[in-house]
Design a protein that fits this description.
The complex is a heterodimer.
Chain A: H1 2-33, H2 40-56, H3 61-84, H4 92-114, E1 119-120, E2 130-133, E3 136-139, H5 140-162, H6 164-174, H7 176-181, H8 186-211, E4 214-215, H9 221-234, H10 239-257, H11 259-266, H12 278-293
Antiparallel strand pairs in A: 1-4, 2-3
Helix pairs in contact in A: 1-5, 1-8, 1-9, 1-10, 2-3, 2-4, 2-8, 2-9, 3-8, 5-6, 5-8, 6-8, 9-10, 9-12, 10-12
Chain B: H1 2-30, H2 36-61, H3 68-83, H4 86-92, H5 107-129, H6 134-153, H7 158-161, E1 167-168, E2 178-179, E3 185-187, H8 192-209, H9 212-222, H10 224-229, H11 234-260, E4 262-263, H12 270-283, H13 288-305, E5 314-315, E6 318-319, H14 327-342, H15 353-368
Antiparallel strand pairs in B: 1-4, 2-3, 5-6
Helix pairs in contact in B: 1-15, 2-8, 2-11, 2-12, 2-13, 3-5, 3-6, 3-11, 5-11, 8-11, 9-11, 12-13
The chains are: A mainly alpha, B mainly alpha.
Chain lengths: ~300, ~375
């Protein structure tokens, strides 16, 4: 039985880690701007596309990766400056609509550049090597991902708790206006948040597309939504929450994908039920249950509504 | 006197609408049926209904729902399932032994079924979701749309929904043309009928908005707490708006099915909802006229007017750079972003057509004085 479940568990941990990197971007932006950044999943996709094109230009790989991360960060920064900053005092709905508009624009832009074709993601040596763990064969990236995620999260938590900009971020997420009055340059803080978020999405995209090596304009939408679900599940605004939520969702999703096979091998069912169709729907069902039962998520802070 | 003043723009509006319908009818009889104009009009009429139904929620009730594609999917499927001719079912449901449903109902009844099914789903979804606030509600409804999509694609329901295969062979808009004895089309109605369908539905929504229910919904939009203090039952009114909006989204879905002639669950993605939301925003959140206008504009731009951007163009010997497949959508998204960022009120703001006319006649009156 363990041999049947283990491969699914393994890819669940890997996908979970990649969702976690995206989810941090959502949770940080939401914590500060109270905005669901619908375009974040597309930033993740754009990072993948940039990698495709830069690698195709023939640059050595050790140069490609930092360059991709740099451009992704620039994209995230620009999106904030162009699409969200002018709407700082507008109602929240307008900003959300703007985010949807950005997502639409990015997808169409990539559609134009790629011609709507699936692009093959370049093979990155070492992490795309195949390794065997017990009976399961997997790519190196599966093993690397959780450790890399934990390392990045520790670094991020240190940044938020120990540095000046981190303190500013915490202040802004507590009270936007007061922190402004206290002399915090909130535009810098917000830009930093987007830069960190895009950086992590860029790292996530390198890991994700090593596993699923085609990129198309819509490939950011689903991971983006799921990462958002993970952020809500863990309690939006909380970084450890987002990471734990992402791992749980990644693992559950992959187990559901393999549920037919697992149940079949265990002798519970005789014919496949086609349950894999529900692997995406499951995340959203979880989201709705969480929102209804405990809207603040696993680690979220209690927020009271002011009239 | 006052009464007369407020009646006049209404009458002009009615005359204008009637003129549009007559214009559509005449155009359809005289122009070739393959003209791009009719594609735009048919799809535009469909989108207009869906956009107005979304506006009822987002613009008039202040519920930021992103579930529209899901309800359209329900409508489209219910319509398809109940109208595929019995003789065709064996071919359509080839993997599921012809399906379990072996009867058809008239188109109009199937459309009402489509609406009712969507409204029923909305009722179920609304029970947990409508308690949530703004963006949580948006993401929860988006999630429900995805769940609905998964359910309809599940092979376990195949005998009803045809699993992940497409539904086809049901009556489409072209089947409304009246065919003469010689096999040629005698009277073209394939554009007028969708106009009438969507017109009737939009009229019903407008009547709802202008009723006491509609005023209650606007009160909820403007200030939930104050509305509750005035004795408006929040839960009841929100549920009402949600179900009514979904009903019409379902009817819109049925119309989309007729327009496309095939239905497949995987095309009803969140991208479709975003598109409709952008239509509503361009038209002006809180304006029925705006939603209708921008639906036609949106469809015309994306299907027709901006098509030239997708092909290579030559001016003399000079080849215009950048033009190739997909450029249309880039230009289009930039226009949308400009509207979203700088013209947040959209085409109409929260004004309706009669409002505009009355302002014009007032200023005219002043000029005469």
């Amino acid at each position: 039985m363990w041999d049947t479940i283990f491969p699914y568990l393994l890819s669940g941990v890997s996908v979970g880690g990649q969702y976690a990197l995206i989810a941090i971007g959502y949770t940080m932006v939401y914590g500060i701007l109270r905005l669901i950044n619908f375009a974040h999943g597309d930033v993740f996709m754009v990072a993948g596309i940039i990698m495709v094109y830069i690698a195709a230009s023939g640059l050595p790989l050790w140069l490609c990766i930092p360059l991709v991360l740099l451009i992704t960060v620039a994209v995230g920064f620009l999106i904030e400056r162009v699409a969200y900053k002018p709407l700082r005092s507008a109602p929240r709905m307008s900003v959300m609509i703007s985010a949807i508009g950005v997502s639409y624009t990015l997808q169409n832009l990539v559609l134009y550049i790629t011609g709507g074709l699936n692009k093959q993601y370049p093979k990155i040596p070492w992490i795309s090597e195949t390794v065997a763990i017990g009976a399961a064969k997997t790519k190196m990236v599966t093993i690397v991902t959780p450790f890399l995620v934990i390392a990045l999260v520790v670094a991020l938590v240190l940044l938020i708790n120990k540095t000046k900009i981190g303190m500013a971020m915490r202040a802004v997420s507590k009270d936007f206006e007061t922190s402004q009055l206290m002399g915090i340059k909130i535009n810098n803080v917000i830009s930093t948040t987007f830069i960190i978020g895009s950086f992590l999405a860029g790292v996530g995209s390198i890991l994700f597309f090593t596993n699923y090596p085609t990129v198309i304009q819509t490939s950011g939408a689903m991971p983006g939504l799921k990462a958002f679900v993970a952020a809500v599940f863990g309690g939006i605004g909380s970084i450890p929450g987002a990471v734990i939520g992402a791992f749980i969702i990644g693992i559950m999703e992959n187990i559901i994908k393999g549920l037919d096979v697992i149940l079949f091998k265990l002798g519970v069912i005789e014919a496949p039920l086609g349950l894999a169709t529900f692997s995406d729907a499951f995340s959203f069902a979880l989201l709705i249950i969480i929102l209804v039962v405990k809207p603040t998520g696993l680690f979220g802070e209690k927020v009271t509504d002011k009239v | 006197m006052n009464q007369k003043k407020s009646k006049k723009p209404m009458i002009i509006t009615l005359v204008l609408v009637a003129a549009i319908y007559i214009g559509v009818f005449i155009a359809e009889q005289t122009m070739p049926a393959t003209s791009m104009l009719f594609t735009v009009l048919k799809k535009g009429a469909t989108y207009a209904l869906v956009a107005v139904s979304m506006n009822l929620l987002n613009g008039f009730t202040g519920i930021f729902s992103l579930g529209q594609a899901g309800f359209m999917l329900v409508g489209a499927y219910v319509y398809g399932i109940f109208t595929i001719p019995v003789a065709q079912r064996a071919a359509v449901y080839q993997y599921f032994d012809g399906g379990v449903i072996q009867f058809t109902v008239p188109v109009i009844i199937a459309m009402i079924f489509a609406g009712l099914a969507a409204a029923f789903f909305a009722f179920l979804i609304g029970l947990p979701v409508l308690r949530l606030k703004s963006d949580y509600l948006a993401i929860a409804t988006l999630g429900f749309a995805e769940i609905i999509r998964a359910i309809f694609q599940w092979n376990g329901l195949g005998p009803v929904t045809n699993g992940s295969n497409m539904l086809r062979s049901f009556p489409s808009f072209n089947d409304f043309n009246i065919v003469g004895a010689d096999g040629k089309v005698a009277v073209y109605l394939s554009t007028l009928i969708p106009f009438i369908m969507s017109g009737v539905c939009i009229l019903l929504i407008v009547l709802l908005i202008n009723s006491s229910y509609g005023r209650a919904l606007k009160a909820i939009r403007d200030d939930e707490v104050a509305a509750e203090a005035m004795g408006i039952n929040l839960a009841h009114h929100k549920r009402l708006a949600f179900c009514v909006s979904s009903f019409f989204a379902g009817v819109g879905g049925a119309m989309l099915a007729m327009y496309q002639t095939t239905v497949q669950a995987k095309s009803f993605t969140s991208a479709m909802t975003y598109e409709i939301l952008l239509i509503v925003v361009i038209g002006g959140i809180g304006s029925v006229t705006g939603s209708v206008l921008s639906s036609f504009l949106f469809v015309a731009c994306s299907e027709w007017w901006l098509r030239f951007l997708d092909e290579q163009q030559m001016i003399g010997d000079f080849q215009v750079p950048l033009l190739r497949n997909g450029f249309r959508l880039v230009v289009f998204s930039v226009i949308i972003m400009i509207v979203v960022l700088f013209f947040r009120r959209g085409i109409m703001g929260d004004k309706e057509l009669p409002d505009l006319l009355s302002r014009r006649s007032k200023s005219k009156g002043r000029a005469v004085k």
